[in-house]
Amino acid sequence: MAAFLYLAGDSFPYLIPTRVIRIVMFYRLFCLSLFAGLLSSPVLSQNRDLSTTPYSMPNTELRYLHSSVNGIDYKLYISYPEDYFRQPTKAYPVLYLLDADYSFAIAKNITDHLSHRNHLQEILLVGIAYDGPNRYRINRTRDYTPTHSIEPVGFPEIQETYSGGGKKFLDFLEQELLPYIDREFRTTHFRAITGHSYGGLFASWTLLTRPRLFDGYILVSPSLWYDRKLLFRIDDHLAEHSGDLRIYCTVGDREVNEHWNMPQDLSEFVKRLKDKNLPQLHLEFEVGEGETHNSIFPSAVSNGIRFVFDGI
User: Fold this and answer.
1) Which residues form the domain of 242?
2) pLDDT, tens digit (0-9, with 9 covering 90-100), for 67-99
């Protein structure tokens, strides 16, 4: 005689054979056991194990440098040319990267790709980052702005507290970082710097005020609107650079809004440089078609390093 289990439905009671109930329960237990087994399998365990070894970029290392000038602890991302240790007497030019937390990996891959295909000489990369907790906006506002200024755009509360540390950061570069790199690594006399946005503002300001520090400048979407267009109001010292100066400037054609017109600002900046008629100044200016403030950097690095470091 068949056994039945009496169940009360939403609208009426109904009967289910107990044999069916047993089959359903067994199927559920089987599925649970299978799922638990999958979770404990080596493949899935590896995917779930947060302690697995992350990917690291070849021919790189991390160093730390404390500045006695501004009291900041910096992290230095170093990328060696592939032949650096195979040719112990060869020296290399250096590219310094601001905003290294995003710029270093991009520049590293592009320079490796080009140099491996003989489109670029080998370059030593030095990315300037920060030790300690992530304070991205605070660090770059402090270090990359030449003056204290509170702007109607951006992050005025950060600008009010931290802006204007550019001179100390530039002193750190001149007095501590550049000598440290030249002392620790085999470098040539040629060095360049690249900066984007606030970093482009700082690199542009460095070009005007201490041009002798670098032989090449890659200026990417510089914030020339800062402090009532400060860089259009200061005296420059470009004539003090006795050797060749190679300057690459770029901005996206979509970097226009109700607060600024960055292509127009950079075009005016480039014109002022050209109007100096300095024979040692070699200048390239490009507006990236379809590029925004956030998308311009990779193409800027590719084009900029080939111009500044005489690639193809």
Assistant:
1) 60-308
2) 999 999 999 999 999 999 999 999 999 999 999
